[in-house]
Amino acid sequence: MILALIFMFLKIGFLGFGGGYAMLSLIFQEGIALGLTVEQFADMNVLDVLIPGPIAINSATYVGFLLAGFVGSVVATVAVSSPSFIFVPVMLRFEKKIDNNVFLKNMLHTAKAASVGLISGVGVLIFLKSAFNISDLKNVFQSEINYFLIGVTVIGWILHDKFKVNPIILTIIAGVLGYLSYYIM
User: Fold this and answer.
1) How far apart are CA 104 and CA 109, in angstroms?
2) Burial of 54 by CB count in 10 Å (0-12 exposed, 13-18 middle, 19+ buried)?
3) For the chain, what is the domain count?
4) What count of Cα atoms within 13 Å lies in the side-chain half-sphere of residue 123?
């Protein structure tokens, strides 16, 4: 399992273009292949909001710990960080030469759009599993609707959009409500 974690997070570190949120789709795909559940992945996303630090590092540490304990968390964290120690010095060395490269600028612009799509796709998968207990839209007629979760989501969205409530506060409130509902309902 340790070797699988090393390869998984090295791949994510090298291919995770666009920052931590863009890496989430890769972490989701690779983590599911190694036995991570959608619920554990959703928990990881909540922890990423609450725990300070880069999303990729927090995610690697969490997934590594879930799959292989303390050693797995250390190995996954080092593996996902390693590509930065290679790319950053190389990019700094050639920064002047590639700064005005039109081809590179177009490629980065396209990659940004792809990153948004990947992030949105993972968000939709988590929402389908959490709110309707289905893994894809083919099973929509067998869904079990979680009205409480949908209500908290809509109210949280309104509070954030209309009243500009901080997402961290909304996450804490949603966590407390979820905790209370689990033990009350």
Assistant:
1) 9
2) middle
3) 1
4) 9
Cα separation, 55 vs 23, in Å, equals 9
Residue 181 lies in a domain: no
Containing structural domain, residue 127: 2-145
100: in domain? yes
- End-to-end Cα, the chain, rounded Å: 38
Determine if residue 48 is left, alpha or beta; phi over 0 gives left, psi from -120 to 50 gives alpha, anything else beta: alpha
> Which pLDDT tens digits describe the chain residue by residue (185 residues)?
899 999 999 999 998 877 778 788 889 999 999 999 988 998 898 888 788 888 899 999 999 999 999 999 999 999 999 998 988 898 888 888 888 888 988 988 898 888 888 888 888 888 888 889 888 788 888 889 999 999 999 999 999 999 999 998 998 999 899 899 988 87
